[in-house]
Amino acid sequence: MLNNEMMKHLKIKNPIIQAPMAGGITTSNLVAEVSNAGGLGMIGAGYQTPIQSREQIREIKQLTSNPFGINLFVPNEFNVTPDAVQSANQRLHTIRKQLHLEQTDSFDIPEYEKIYGSFIEQVNVVIEENVSICSFTFGIPPKEVMAELKQHNITLIGTATTVREAVANEKAGMDMVVMQGSEAGGHRGNFIDGHQESLVGLMSLIPQVVDNVSIPVIAAGGIMDGRGLMASLFLGAQGVQMGTAFLTCIESGAHKVHKEAILNADEDQTTFTRAFSGKWARGIKNKFIADMSEHELLVPDFPVQNLLTQEIRKTCSGQNNQDFMSLWSGQSPRLAKSQTVERLMNDIMSEAKINLHLLTQQLTAL
Amino acid sequence: MLNNEMMKHLKIKNPIIQAPMAGGITTSNLVAEVSNAGGLGMIGAGYQTPIQSREQIREIKQLTSNPFGINLFVPNEFNVTPDAVQSANQRLHTIRKQLHLEQTDSFDIPEYEKIYGSFIEQVNVVIEENVSICSFTFGIPPKEVMAELKQHNITLIGTATTVREAVANEKAGMDMVVMQGSEAGGHRGNFIDGHQESLVGLMSLIPQVVDNVSIPVIAAGGIMDGRGLMASLFLGAQGVQMGTAFLTCIESGAHKVHKEAILNADEDQTTFTRAFSGKWARGIKNKFIADMSEHELLVPDFPVQNLLTQEIRKTCSGQNNQDFMSLWSGQSPRLAKSQTVERLMNDIMSEAKINLHLLTQQLTAL
Description:
The structure is a homodimer. Chain A contains 15 helices and 11 strands. Chain A is an alpha/beta fold. The first copy, chain A, has one domain (5-363): Aldolase class I (TIM Barrel, Alpha-Beta Barrel). In chain A, strands 1-9-8-6-5-4-3-2 form an 8-stranded parallel sheet. Chain A is globular.
């Protein structure tokens, strides 16, 4: 059995982490099923209140006795003026009109301090509820937070997009690091390097990172099956984190319209946009991305734009209208299937085994 | 020994193709050494005259008795007005001034028909000189050209960037297809899909293409060593095509400044530009790319812009000045080494063998 450092540390049987997709996708059932199948289920707690996180942790513990983890968004400071918020809001007027939504002009933009306070409360929930694994996106928590978590023996996983960011994670004390290739769907995890610089494909990214850090590296982006798993291991990763592949599973809480969009998409139909949230993210092209493309660089930073578009996204979900929903997806939608987590996990591991056997036969006399 | 369909067809011992980099990089020595080491050396004949191609083919035959190949650019029609050429030229005035070059206002823009005629002459050279393998970039030759080459039993290799383009290559009768991932350095080979759509990372691209074509698939982009080779094979490719890794070899004809730039670069220092040639290409960021970024979308199509910048690039080469040279590179420059082709080839194959052995041991009881 494969039993590398990452697997030992996480106490998992298969080197597969379910990506902590935020926004209701990682239902307790999804997380528990992944852990029950020998992988690592992860709660995407980025948009949860501390109370919601606590409830879900308790719920998952009823569904699995295997380890699972939780992901928190590290708050980033943002700079917005009321004027900028107002003009960003006005740019959404045409879309609201199409959806017969009332125009709003006043927004309750939260202060960074409040967001940071909520982050600390979530950290406390993780500690109090004895979650053994915690990963972070959008940066590295402050030293004192890292120290507190380490004192409670919580395994810490960082997210990075370049060698520089991977090294920063290692230096800050992360036990392992998820490397997000340019193939990955959803929000980009770059926090030191710019968006364009951070777009490195996994074939290039993994070997260059492995050569420059000592902690285990986890590959993320476009990995959907046993082929991607084995390729990642040969590049030097100790495991994979998969998002899109779990998103279309029966147990995932993703909207059916979102699942259908992925199941019907081709590899060249995703694009990057920051129009939904103020952070760059990869999703399937739709009307919202097209309509907003000219304002793309003008929208206010995350999480402000995310708040401004919230009602639009919610209304569309209710109407099963994919035009203005965020249809996050990696670059391998042709490989997505509608199936159970158990089936997906079994297929990945048996495909990996078969391919290894076949190639070993071909290569024995190499 | 690995002996898949691609290797049998190409009559090579190791599943490694040296990318046909145009512009003097693929010296006869480089091509012959790759073939002598059991890979497939390739002449990058994109900018050669038919006479030059014929001479190089004859020269290489003196240096190796193993198979080698040649790559031709499929001519694309372009649309430029004299006015557009003049304003594109004026945008280069500041740069010419810095290099103390005389300002030119008249350019001999070749007609498409003339370029196409030269392409047909090159095809005839390939046939007359009995080159057994011919690959194509920037499109698929017309039916009659494909038929003529096939009649002479020449193995035909297409280049594609998406599933749609791979299928088009198969339908046109290509024997195999090189899939260029977004990691790849130099010119993009997209010819049906747009530039942005064509940027799919290899981790996503290879499995999705393999599922949709029957001809052998060759992975290209960011592959530098045994790790990349094994990853590509597990994704479903039958071999790899490597550019940057061969570019910094002793035998390559790349300018020493170009080699040094790659050897000193990080994974996040390349970018896409169309300012050098009128076609999108990935290279290391320099002054020219930065200075031209605002005119990027305005420059005339390939090969017109390539002609306009020719003297600037040539002058900079003569002065060992990297500011205005095209420093093409894939996304893995940290893995580049200055070494002989023989050493590179040996290292790739032994690393592949060792990694397979190690992972097989770890995975036996999977």
